[in-house]
Amino acid sequence: MNTIAMDNRAYNGYGYYSRSEMRIRANRKWRMQIVRRQRIALAVSIAVVLSIVIFFAASIMIKAQNNGIEPMVKYYTVAMVHGGDTLESLAKESFSSDHYDSFDAYINEILRINHLDDPEDLKAGENVVIPYYDIYR
User: Fold this and answer.
1) 3-state helix, strand, coil in the chain (%, to 5)
2) Could you give the C-alpha distances from 88 to 80, 93, 118, 122, 129, in angstroms and in order?
3) pLDDT (tens digit, 9 = 90+) per residue, 78-134?
């Protein structure tokens, strides 16, 4: 090669390349880095979208209760007081020892709910609200 041609070329470890060839190689390397970053960003975006879709799909399909467990819920009923009824006789039908410490605690709750001071204050014809527990349906 002549000396003019040698002046326009540079040695870069693999041989002699012209400055334009070195610039082309550098631009190609730069473009490949950009493409690599874009692919990584696309993969991360797809992973995030799939995670969100899987989360919502799974949360929709989850059942709120297990088939082997039947949750107990507190309900209230209204009982009409007839002649000769006492608060204890009305409460015996709905009392559950699983949910109350004692029968007296259950009677005290009925008194509190109905704003009564004494269990003897019941009169025939009145309505009394009585709590009870049953399986949620």
Assistant:
1) 50, 20, 35
2) 14, 9, 12, 11, 13
3) 999 998 888 899 899 889 888 889 999 999 999 999 998 888 888 889 999 999 998
